Give the backbone structure.
Amino acid sequence: MVEAQEDFMQEQETKIIKGNVAAAYAAKSARVQVISAYPITPQTTVVEKLSEFVDKGEMPGTQYIKVESEHSVMASIIGASVAGTRTFTATSGQGLFYMYEMVHWAAGTRLPIVTTIASRGPAPPWNIWADFTDVISCRDTGWMISFASGHQEIYDDILMSYKICEDHDILLPKFVAYGGFILSHTSKPVIIEDQEAVDAFLPPLPDERGWPHIFLDPERPMMHGNLIMPSGFYSEFRLKIHHTMMLAKQKIKETARDFEKAFGRNYGNGLVEEYKLNDAEIAILNYGELAMQIEQAVDELREEGYKVGCAKLRYFRPFPTEEVIDISKKVKILGVMDRATAFGSPTGGPVSSEVKSSLYNSGVSTKIVPIIAGLGGREVNLEQQKNQLKALVKLNETGEYPKDMIDGTFWDGLLEVE
Amino acid sequence: MNKIKWKNICEDKEKRPEVQQYRNWEELPPIPISLPIEASMGMTGDWRTFRPIINKELCTKCGICWMYCPEGVIRKNEEGDYEVDFSFCKGCGVCAKECPNKSIEMIRESEVKHG
């Protein structure tokens, strides 16, 4: 047993660290009380770093549980959260799939659990590199899902997540996803905020009464996770999850504003970020790391005279329907770039299908071009993103679609071996 | 943000209601909670097909049936005899199986009633 350093207080410091380490620092800054861990690439170094913090006594009062599988990770995190503690874990790809039963259980019990996903491609073919299909497979679980596009955003979004999830009107769990290896294992400067400033930003840790809707007290027993007969309030409890998700959009916006006030970093309206859209004719909506890189592509094309812009989707659940309609209104053609698959869906890409669905009946006639690229960690470099934008410019001018339009979706960068 | 309409059960620990009644989805708390009241799921004794009958002549009052009963419906009365609460006994037969002296017999309910 390592003696906890009761007076341990992190001061604001810029560190050059990997994305996974930024996630670990965020959990530490948030003073999480229970961490449950099982290793899986590319997430492993998140929980490794946290075990190091706990071992050094830098996280006083934090309990670190080692379990035998991801299913048990989420089961133990649920137990800890039901007892009224701030909890954290991390997983990836196959680990998340193994956790899946408990993922539903956490949302149904309305527990404000925060989990990071260093996203990786589902197997087979075996793959451990960036691809958001893993977290998107949790679309209908009742978890909020956001994407971080850079190292600092991983740290910042985890802090914002606790503020959003623990709101007594919300009480839902949340995934913070970022591309495996591309962000998880590369290093960049990250500002780790002053502990007192983080404490002031976040809600206080729950007291012995726990969360407002549930508490464990052996003297006054209660049961949760009850059976509800078909004639009972089952539909109504499900409706409440959906309705809360819709209300959460407001809380997400408020939290982004509060965050900017506290720490000076801006994340648009919290749900989406726009970049040079006001006079743009063509734009591409991205999420995750490619949403940051494409800003450079836009800058370079604008120097060549192209009227292009881009937008970044920060949240997939709740889906920012109104905000996406507003973005679409500003341009003639909107590309929607998925680093993920939704087999058999209208477009084959999960976000492009949502965007198309959002626009139906909105009166906006912007052409949506679904794009899929970068699956399984395939590199999507600056030149490729410039070419995607140019392809949409050409479509606007000549009506000619890119070569690899397959089933209505532009599959960019398919291999062709001579 | 909409204000919370449901009753925060942690606010007033001592005055928690025994049974909470809701009229519609907006009044519901985030999750269903059951508080311990008798027969919240009905009188489960209705489910019974076989009834355990304790033979007092053979019973040694060892308490093994009381210990094994998965429903906790076997009690020791003032005379020291073990009794089954048939309002809730589901007739699983674990007591009869575990009784070391074979002093519990499982009898079909129809036969108990008619004969």
Observations:
- The longest strand of chain B covers residues 50-54.
